[in-house]
Design brief:
11 strands, 9-stranded mixed β-sheet
Length: 271
């Protein structure tokens, strides 16, 4: 039997920096990167095409798809628009075999490549439990660690990426056996990688808050650049939950690509 291929899949808005990081961390461990960008943000507002196909990207590995048509959801419901983009992404995997693995992550969630070598999922779904970092690569967020980030399933078992993202959760494993409405065929991968959340400038974070599905955070109370900058400088949570983040030292638990390029990433590392 041929070895199952690994496809790393994301939806894309505008963060080329994070995709470049993802590519360099995972390129020797996955067979494909599948990227789906839309001409419209999740509020249904038209945007420009942002993905940059760099010269160093392997054209045989990087598969980029662009949605030209509007989502056409009633009232432009951001959550439904997000689900539609994810479903289009799944349709873009038609070239894969039914035994191949589809990994889905938010763009800032990167699975640990050490777990991908000789990857073998023993259940229907998998969840990568990841360390969470905010604003800087080494600004640790203990409140949201472990972060239930990257999900994985074989193509034959995956009917909806949005279902896998929204309904496949570790808490399902705690439900009684008779709760047939809760999927329990789930394998958890500890030390499953990194959630590098909001490794962005205040301007970029502001744009993100104004356009992503969580519309409750689009108001000036959260999205104003000066407010965001003050929270970054004080290592404080964007959403005023009382979280204070902690600087940690870069060690071998971080991606080798970051450690090797500390000078290149100096703006995103706290000394």
């Amino acid at each position: 039997m041929p070895k199952s291929k690994l496809a790393d899949c994301i939806t894309f808005f505008d963060d080329n920096f994070m995709f470049d990081l993802r590519y360099n961390i995972l390129k020797d461990f996955v067979d494909y990167f599948i990227i789906c960008e839309s001409k419209y943000n999740h509020k249904g507002i038209e945007k420009k095409k942002n993905f940059i196909f760099k010269k160093n990207f392997d054209k045989n590995k990087v598969k980029y798809f662009f949605i030209e048509k509007p989502f056409k959801e009633k009232n432009n419901d951001p959550w439904k628009n997000q689900a539609k983009q994810r479903q289009f992404l799944l349709e873009c995997t038609d070239f894969l075999d039914k035994e191949d693995y589809i990994f889905f992550s938010d763009p800032d969630e990167i699975p640990d490549p050490n777990l991908l070598a000789n990857f073998d999922l023993k259940t229907k779904y998998g969840i990568f439990l990841q360390k969470c970092f905010n604003f800087k690569f080494n600004l640790f967020n203990p409140y949201e660690t472990p972060w239930e980030g990257t999900r994985v399933a074989k193509k034959k078992n995956l009917k909806s990426i949005d279902f896998m993202r929204q309904k496949i959760k570790s808490k399902n494993l705690k439900y009684k056996f008779f709760r047939f409405d809760k999927e329990k065929s789930i394998e958890l991968f500890n030390n499953g990688g990194w959630h590098f959340n909001n490794i962005l400038s205040p301007t970029e974070i502001s744009t993100k808050l104004k356009t992503f599905a969580h519309t409750e955070f689009s108001s000036d109370n959260f999205s104003k650049e000066e407010i965001i900058k003050a929270k970054i400088d004080s290592y404080s949570d964007l959403f005023e939950r009382g979280h204070k983040y902690v600087k940690v030292n870069l060690d071998n638990s971080f991606p080798y690509f970051i450690i090797k390029n500390k000078e290149k990433f100096s703006d995103w590392i706290i000394d």
